[in-house]
Amino acid sequence: MTTIAPPPAADAPTARPALGDRLRRFAPLSPTLAAVAILVVLFVGAELTFGNFITPRNLSALLLDNAYLIMLAVGLTFVILTGGIDLSVGSVMAFTGILGAKMLADGIPVLVVLPAMILGGAAIGALIGALVQYFDVQPFIASLAGLFLARGFAFVVSLSSIRVEDPVVLWLQSTRLRIGDWYLTPTGIIALLVVAIAAAVLRWTRFGRTVYAIGGSEQSARLMGLAVGRTKVIVYLISGVCGGLAGLMLTAYSGAGYPLNGVGTELDAIAAVVIGGTLLAGGQGYVLGSLVGVLVYGGIKSVISFTGADQSWTRIIIGGLLLLFIIVQRLIVARADRR
After folding, report:
1. Tens of pLDDT along 276-322?
2. Torsion sign (Cα): 198, 27, 62, 122
3. Which domain covers residue 68, as residue numbers?
4. CA-to-CA distance for 230 and 25, rounded, in angstroms?
5. How does this protein lie in the membrane (predicted)?
6. Could you tell me the CA-to-CA distances from 24 to 19, 275, 289, 290 in Å, in that order?
7. In 10 A of CB 12, how many CB atoms?
8. Is 256 helix (H, G, I), strand (E, B) or coil?
9. What distance in Å separates the CA atoms of residue 305 and residue 294, rounded to the nearest whole number?
C-alpha cells in the first residue's frame, strides 16, 4: 500500500516583535538621544532669543574652543565604559602642556617635543592602569594619585607660565581652513578624527567589544576568556594619550603652557561623557554621545556669554543636567536588573 505524504504545511507567518520589545532595543540610545534633544532645544531657543546664535562663525568657534575637551572626553569614554574613572586627565593636560612649552623654550625641535608630550601622558595613564589592574587599587584612588603626580610634575617643570612661539604649534590653532563662512582649525580636525577612530574601534574591533563586556560584567568577561587585564590597562593608556593630545591643543589655543591649566577640567569632561549617555556603571555608551555632551557644555557657555550673565551659571546648569542624567541612568540600570 502506497502512503501519500500530506502536503507540507505552509510556513506560519513570522510574528512581528512587539512594540515594547522594539523600544527596548533602543533603550541604550535613550540617554544619548536625550542629549541630542537638549542640544537642539538649546540652539533653537538661543536662536529665537538672540536672533544671531546659529551662525557659521559661532558653530565653528564651538568646535575651536572645545577641541581639547573633546579629546579628554574621548579618553574618558573608554575608561568609564569599563566601569572605571580617571580623575587625572586635567592634570595630565597641564603637565604635558607645560612640558612641551618648556622644551620648546629650551630650543628642542618640535618633532621631538610633540611625541614627548604624548608619551608623558601615556606613561601616567599606563601607571594608573597598572595600579588598577595589578595592584587592585580602586580607580578613584589610583587616578587621584595620578592627578597629584601629574600636577606635581607640572610644577616641577615650571612654576610660571611659559610662552610658546614655535610656528608649528601656533599653526595648529591659528590656521583657518574655510568652506564658505564655515571654518575648521587643525586642532578641530584632529579632535574629529580621534572621535571617528575611537567610535570605529569601539564598534568594530575585538578590543571595543571587550571594553563593553568588562563594563557589563567583568567576571563574565573573564569567563569568556577575554583579555580583561590587558584591556583595562590599555583604556587608561588611551586616556593618558588623549590627555597628552589635549595638552598640545590647549597650549596651541592659549599660546602658552601653565602649570595651573586644567584645574577642574576632569570634572567637565566626566560631566560631558555622562550627559552624552555613557553609564557611570560601565557597559553602555558611545563616543559620539560624548561629543554631543561636549557640544551641550560648550553651547551652554556660549548662551550664557550671549546673555552677559556670570559664567558660574554654566556650573549650575551643568550640575543640574548631570543630576538629571544620573537619575535617568539609575532608572535604566534598575529596569535592566528587573528584566
Report:
1. 889 888 888 899 999 999 999 998 888 888 887 777 777 788 888 87
2. negative
3. 31-45+53-334
4. 30
5. Multi-pass membrane protein
6. 9, 20, 19, 22
7. 6
8. strand
9. 17
Going by the DSSP 8-state scheme, the letter that residue 195 receives in this structure is: H
339, part of any domain: no
- Cβ neighbours around 243 below 10 Å, total: 38
Amino acid at 16: R
Is 23 inside any structural domain?
no
Specify the CATH number for the domain of residue 224: 1.10.3470
Which ranges constitute the DSSP H helices of 205-264?
A: 206-216, 218-223, 228-254
pLDDT digits (tens, 9 = 90+) for 32-74: 888 888 889 888 988 888 888 888 888 888 888 999 999 999 9
Rounded CA gap, 219 and 224, in Å?
9
Please indicate, yes or no, if residue 20 is contained in any of the structural domains: no
Q: Is residue 156 one of the residues assigned to a domain? A: yes
The reported pTM is 0.89
In what helix (H) or strand (E) does residue 178 lie, and over which residues does it extend? Answer: strand 177-179
Q: Write out the three cell numbers for 165.
A: 612661539
State pLDDT tens for residues 167-185: 999 999 888 888 888 889 9
- Split into its structural domains, the chain has a count of 1
**Cell, residue 146:** 595620578
**Alpha-carbon distance 169 to 267, whole Å?**
27
